[in-house]
Specification:
The complex is a heterodimer of chains A (359) and B (362). Chain A has a four-stranded mixed β-sheet. In chain A, helix 8 packs antiparallel against helix 10. In chain A, 66% of the residues lie in helices and 8% in strands. With 359 residues, chain A is an alpha/beta fold. Chain B has 362 residues and is an alpha/beta fold. Chain B has two domains: 226 residues; 94 residues, 3-Layer(aba) Sandwich (abc type-2 transporter like fold), CATH 3.40.1710.10. In chain B, strands 2-1-3-4 form a four-stranded mixed β-sheet, with helices on both faces. In chain B, helix 2 runs antiparallel to helix 6. Chain B is elongated, with a radius of gyration of 27 Å. The chains are: A alpha/beta (359), B alpha/beta (362). At the A-B interface, helix 2, helix 3, strand 4, helix 7 and strand 5 of A face helix 2, helix 4, strand 4, helix 5 and strand 5 of B. Strand 5 of chain A pairs parallel with strand 4 of chain B, so a sheet runs across the interface.
């Protein structure tokens, strides 16, 4: 009864702040759409330029193999200098110089060395682009006999559709950010507005106040997740789900409480929302970027991999990817549920102790 | 404009920020982001947990296993599992890749032999990169002579270091997010707490108020330019090939842009939460996506290519990457153009913000 009264009050406060409601809606819909749609992590439309010193038809034949979506239409440059200039101005990422010697060797069947100039500012992209190049040149000459068929299958996402991956990563980042901010602010706003003492005078136990305040924000988050998953992730991007949706909701719920624990600590320390802002950024950014949301954990340094065991987001991300892509069942996910639950309990206990002193 | 009014207001702002201990966070956050991300974001794919199932046990299959084991890209375990068991390893996140060499593989060479590679495709970039690594490695393993040999010369980041690729790009992210949220919050705070009425009723002009509010975040973060530069040069050993003066000037202008965004955010919002959420949303995601860290702008799809040109990050990071890795400076027309665009951007934001601030209750 008392709990529902507090819940009602918190929902009222939330929905009266129309600006905030709009931004949160934005974060759960359009923002995720933009992130999913906007960026292809695998290099596409690589800008490519070439110099044809030999002026031979075979060059045009090779060039015709560079096509979309991997490459933009190759641009002809009159001299190597002009090509280099374009690379220096970062108009062109890959430059190929077809020298007279290359064409001569290629026709006479010797090993022909092809000079490739590449802007390697983005090292990983450059590397993948080189692999593309290699493949094109290999397929160009049908004379090569490969002794065995190399059958490479990319499981779960055979066409490397980045929309699925990016939109989920963005959703999890936004949940982390909003969870921290919303829950911390529910408490700090009372401090800043001076209504903290009024809150203490209520004939309700402190623990119930704390719990129902958090629950109100967690419920708001869950509604946001539902909107986002239904409208954007399933609705627009047609992301497959190989596991069960219930598991995803369960882990999201546990994760929200783990984040709530961290938010309680922030709320206990800060007196103003400005402090909440800074502390949130300090905690949120490493959480998001070092838990494997955007780049795979296994490539990070061992120390960071070790640290990430203490991040509730790590388990959330892995469980979510397992549920959506790898199709793991409830039993396989149990370690994540366990870890997330443990995280939630520990963080919540710490946060509760911290803020409980103020009651 | 009365200078002594501005001075008095500024003094109040500085005392406020220092009393809040905000000053510690103002300097802690950018450094922390730079160090954590610099060490943490690895776009290169290494230590892929690979399971090789060898049913052939021939000289060739051992050679292939050897080839896989001797690179930093794969952490190989040779196991005798069925395909199903191995797949379960991927599903439970204990492996990233399976290679299956079928029985009598080496006997069937040139007669339809097949080697199966299964990659966990959940991370698209990792999957594509791994595919390339595997193809390259197996072709070497079969000792095929290719008629065309690629001789690549890498520009700007010759050794393809991840640090050189990631760390300069972080400047655009940090100086977009942090000054904007600081500026937005210190203005909106007055609205929420109610002290904005001091401004409404005091004999202070709109311009003076804005100058006094924006100078503290601007000055605080100007010092951060140098702090971050030092970390980049001496901790990450990124080369600096450009002109220091251009680097410094463009960074100051960029901070001005960020503070201007904060000003605009503070006009739309009336509570600090909303200001915080809005400034983080409109800065973090574009700041990261269009920074050129994940992918070069020139290689983007049409939609995102246009979107990238709307946000200031792209122009700033172009000049920053140039300062660190390329070193063309203002010799390149592109840099001059982008510099002018940034200047226009800064002026437009501040002018727009100033004209929208009202010195009265709505």
């Amino acid at each position: 009864m008392k709990m529902s009264a507090i819940l009602k009050k918190e929902f009222l406060v939330f929905f009266r702040n129309i600006g905030l409601v709009m931004f949160i809606l934005y974060a759960f819909t359009l923002d995720i759409y933009i992130a999913g749609k906007g960026i292809k992590v695998t290099p596409r439309h690589v800008s490519i330029g070439y110099v044809n010193e030999a002026d031979n038809l075979i060059v045009n034949k090779i060039i015709s193999h560079f096509h979309s979506p991997q490459f933009k239409k190759p641009k002809l440059f009159l001299s190597e200098k002009a090509l280099k200039n374009a690379i220096y101005n970062r108009k062109i990422m890959v430059g190929i110089v077809f020298s007279k010697e290359f064409v001569k060797n290629l026709i006479s069947g010797k090993v022909a060395k092809l000079q490739v100039l590449i802007d390697s500012t983005a090292a990983a992209q450059a590397e993948v682009t080189l692999i593309y190049l290699q493949n094109i040149l290999m397929n160009f000459e049908h004379k090569i006999k490969i002794p065995a068929n190399i059958d490479i299958i990319k499981l779960f996402n055979p066409n490397s559709n980045t929309k699925w991956f990016m939109s989920l990563s963005e959703l999890m980042s936004n949940i982390t950010m909003l969870g921290l901010i919303l829950i911390a602010v529910v408490f700090v706003r009372e401090k800043e507005n001076g209504t903290w003492d009024i809150m203490l005078l209520m004939p309700v136990k402190g623990s119930i106040i704390i719990f129902s305040k958090i629950l109100s924000q967690v419920l708001i988050l869950m509604v946001g997740i539902t909107i986002s998953v239904g409208l954007i992730i399933f609705g627009i991007f047609n992301t497959p789900i190989n596991g069960s949706l219930f598991d995803f909701y369960l882990i999201s719920f546990l994760f929200s409480f783990a984040i709530g624990g961290i938010a309680l600590v922030i709320a206990a320390i800060s007196k103003t929302i400005l402090e909440v802002a800074h502390l949130t950024i300090v905690i949120m950014l490493p959480l998001i970027f070092l838990s494997g949301a955007w780049t795979p954990l296994s490539s990070m340094s061992p120390f960071i991999q070790f640290l990430s065991y203490f991040s509730p987001l790590r388990y959330y991300i892995q469980a979510t990817q397992d549920i959506f892509f790898r199709g793991s069942g409830f039993v396989d996910l149990l370690p994540y549920f366990g870890a997330e639950f443990l995280m939630a309990v520990i963080l919540f206990y710490i946060g509760y102790r911290k803020i409980g002193r103020l009651f | 404009m009365k200078l002594n009014v501005i001075r008095a207001y500024l003094k109040k702002e500085f005392i406020d920020l220092i009393r809040n201990k905000m000053i510690i966070l103002t300097y802690l956050i950018p450094t922390m982001i730079l160090i954590l991300f610099g060490y943490g974001i690895k776009l290169e794919v290494t230590h892929t947990r690979t399971i090789i199932i060898d049913h052939d046990h021939s000289k060739l299959s051992l050679e292939i296993i050897n080839k896989f084991s001797h690179t930093k890209y794969f952490d190989v375990k040779v196991k005798n599992l069925t395909y199903k068991q191995a797949l379960h390893k991927i599903q439970t996140n204990q492996a990233d890749m399976i290679v299956i060499i079928p029985p009598s593989f080496s006997k069937n060479l040139y007669k339809g032999a097949e080697i199966g590679v299964f990659i966990d495709g959940s991370f698209p970039l990792r999957a594509v990169t791994l595919q390339g690594y595997v193809e390259k490695l197996l072709i070497h393993g079969f000792n095929i002579k290719l008629p065309i040999k690629i001789e690549n010369r890498n520009f700007f980041n010759e050794s393809m270091r991840d640090y050189n690729a990631v760390v300069p790009g972080l400047f655009g992210l940090i100086f977009l997010v942090v000054p904007a949220s600081l500026a937005a919050i210190i203005i909106v705070k007055e609205k929420e707490v109610g002290t904005i009425f001091n401004f409404y009723s005091a004999p202070i002009k709109k311009v003076e108020f804005i100058i006094a509010k924006l100078i503290p975040p601007f000055l605080f973060h100007s010092l951060n330019i140098f702090i971050l530069l030092l970390w980049t040069l001496y901790l990450f050993n990124v080369p600096f090939r450009g002109n220091f003066f251009i680097f410094w000037l463009v960074s100051e202008i960029y901070i001005l842009i960020s503070v201007g965004i904060g000003l605009l955010v503070s006009i739309i919002t009336s509570t600090q939460v909303a200001a915080l959420v809005l400034s983080v949303i409109i800065t973090v995601i574009p700041g990261f996506l269009y920074s050129g860290i994940l992918m070069p702008i020139s290689s983007m799809d049409k939609e995102s290519y246009i979107e990238a040109h709307i946000f200031p990050v792209m122009y700033y990071n172009h000049i920053i990457y140039d300062s660190f890795l390329v070193g063309q400076g203002f010799k390149s027309n592109e840099n001059v153009l982008y510099f002018i665009i940034l200047c226009i951007y800064a002026v437009a934001l501040i002018v727009l913000g100033t004209s929208l601030v009202k010195k009265a209750i709505k």
